[in-house]
Write a structure and sequence with these properties.
- By secondary structure, the chain is mainly alpha-helical.
- It has a single domain, classed as Glutaredoxin.
- It contains 4 helices and 2 strands; from the N terminus they run αααββα.
- A two-stranded antiparallel sheet has the order 1-2.
- It is globular.
């Protein structure tokens, strides 16, 4: 990933899925290089890759392909998860307390 826009998009996506996970959703992100067995063992992903080797990234929802060739937008994630878009965007608030 050499393109700065792709890097920002990947970070945005990572934040959004972390927020979905914090709201109780089961969200997983796999990397072809480090999670090769997942790609080999998942029949949907394996089939898609055999038909279109350039289809990554693939977004699966409940085991079905929802999108290929790009990361989903926050709007798409919010619609699929049926959550308010604001839950996926913006800065997270952190409360720090001084413990003496």
């Amino acid at each position: 990933m050499t393109n700065p826009e792709e890097k920002r998009n990947s970070i945005r996506f990572a934040v959004a899925i972390a927020k979905l996970a914090a709201h109780g959703f089961d969200v997983y992100r796999y990397n072809l290089l480090s999670d090769t067995s997942y790609f080999e063992k998942n029949p949907v992903v394996n089939d898609l890759l055999s038909r279109d080797p350039g289809c990554l990234p693939i977004t699966l929802i409940n085991g079905a392909a929802a999108q290929m060739h790009r990361l989903p937008s926050n709007e798409e994630l919010a619609a699929w998860a049926e959550v308010d878009l604001g839950q996926l965007e913006g800065k997270q608030e952190i409360r720090l307390e001084n413990q003496k």
